[in-house]
Amino acid sequence: MNSEEVTVFFYGLFMDESLLAAKGITPSRATIGYVDGYRLRIGRRATLVPDRTNKAYGVLMALRTEDVRALYSEESVVDYVSESVSVVLSDGTLESAVCYNLPERKLEGTTNLDYVRSLLLLADRLEFPESYLQHIRRQVA
User: Fold this and answer.
1) pLDDT tens, position by position, 6-17
2) Are 84 and 35 in contact (CB under 8 A)?
3) Helix/strand/coil (H, E, C) string of the chain?
4) φ, ψ for residue 90, nearest 5 deg
5) Domains in the chain, please, with CATH?
6) Residue partners of 118: CB distance under 8 A and separation at least 6
7) Which percentage of the chain shows pLDDT scores above 90?
8) Strand partners, 48
9) For 35-85, what is each residue's pLDDT tens digit?
10) Which pLDDT band, with edges at 50, 70 and 90, does 141 fall under?
11) Residue 22 — pLDDT band, cuts 50, 70, 90?
12) Can you name the residues that pair with 100 across neighbouring β-strands?
């Protein structure tokens, strides 16, 4: 079995370590950070879209490569594609990571209100800045 790890930046419900644990996945580390130049957008699920004037908060996690493959083979996220990002950690250091986003051509207009509520509770529990919590709340407006 391959035990190689990959560093992934999660910004949606996969930030929840208890959700990952329910899938049999345990990250070897989890650190809060953000990526500059992206804006969170929620349709059926969350995605990040390029926006030079924004930043998106999330959790940087080290996971086994096979666990990441299993996560993104699920039907609800199978269309997500990986891209490289630089994550700013709380101490100001930058760390490279992989981030999975839905291509803009696949974004739909309908906002999943249950997803927004769940993400807002999680982001609050992770103590993301109030301005970012407000951004999440505005997804339903």
Assistant:
1) 999 999 999 999
2) no
3) CCCCEEEEEECCHHHCHHHHHHCCCCCCEEEEEEEEEEEEEECCCEEEEEEEEEEEEEEEEEEEHHHHHHHCCCHHHCCCEEEEEEEEECCCCEEEEEEEECCHHHCCCCCCHHHHHHHHHHHHHCCCCHHHHHHHHHHHC
4) -60, -25
5) 5-140 (3.10.490.10)
6) 13
7) 85
8) 40
9) 999 999 998 889 999 999 999 999 999 999 999 999 999 998 999 999 999
10) low
11) very high
12) 82
Q: How far apart are CA 19 and CA 131, in angstroms?
A: 25
Question: What token pair was written down for 49?
Answer: 């879209």
Query: What are 48's two structure tokens?
Result: 């990040």
